[in-house]
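Sequence in, structure out. Go.
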Amino acid sequence: MDSPAPALLRLECSICGAEHSPEELQTICRACGRALFARYDLELAKRMLTRENLRVRPASMWRYAEVMAGSDVADRVSLGEGMTPLLRAPRLGADLGARALWVKDEGGNPTGSFKARGIAAAMAMALKLGVTEIGMPTAGNAGSAAAAYGARCGIRAHIAMPQDTPEGIVSEVRAFGAALQLVDGLISDAGRVIAEQCRAQGWFEMATLKEPYRVEGKKTMGYELWEQMDGDLPDAILYPTGGGTGLIGMWKAFDELEQMGLTGAERPRMFAVQSDGCAPIVRAWEAGAARAAPWQDAATVAPGIRVPAPFADDLILGALRASNGGAVAIADGAIVPAMRQMARREGIDACPEGAATLLGLERLLSEGVLERDSRIVLFNTGSGLKHPELRPTA
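Output:
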């Protein structure tokens, strides 16, 4: 790629601060077992990472090369992920009384969802460090992305997902040639299957936030907001939250931007949106808890937010509190009508997770949590095309 090399210094535990070498394969912190973050020489990075320089860089997430581990091998992995549109949504805004509403539409990413970002970044570093086989549990879309990017760079992907994952996603994984196991249960059950097989077979485990680089790909959504809003940031972000990697990643991006002097100290208020059929983060938020207890009998039409026990629950809750944000559960039965509303009012083909944010916004506005003049961004994390089972039949 015609771009600078990453200014990667070290890996650092997000909780205890213990340092780990980025020159070796890493999973979680060896001291406390929590998620690792990539840390960069931001003094060096800010010399080149300017809006002026960005104007001539490729329109992909790898344009932020200085703060992207793996960008030096990205040309061997990339399928063109990132730089998705930030769309004004005046008709939806009028419906809800939100005067400055945008939708960040991730459905145009390779394999149709934002999962392409994290998987591309993780696969780039895995390739660089000599990985030949990975194992991954998924609620659906991350499996599609892992299968595609594994095929792209020659890494064999072993995927486990719930048996009731939408058929379109299941067939997509198979089409890319990954080894697929359908598990009787949820993503947590798939996670136990994959963890055991990774130990037995020597595969590298690429589960959410159990390796350091998926969050790096997801953080580029925050960099793109900064760039697409002309060096500014919105007042509030509503994000459909399962494992929460994107929310955590954007919060990390905003911290890096501030440290480089590219933004001030003001940050968007971050809001996690979950279904009332699976809302561990909302329950922990409302209780003022530091960690989220597992949700029993999780059920929702939105597979991406059917995550009963997110590994990085403490990081999610920390970002919500630090931003003066919050967490809101919406009625699962209202998700499909919200998908249709987004399609018919704005031409945005939202996945069920993305449509949930519209419902979350309606509630936050009606309760006075958000002001109607606030600049608000909803995240549609994937394409509705991946869910034919939720399409109208007439």
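Check: The mean pLDDT is 96. The first strand starts at residue 8 and ends at 13.
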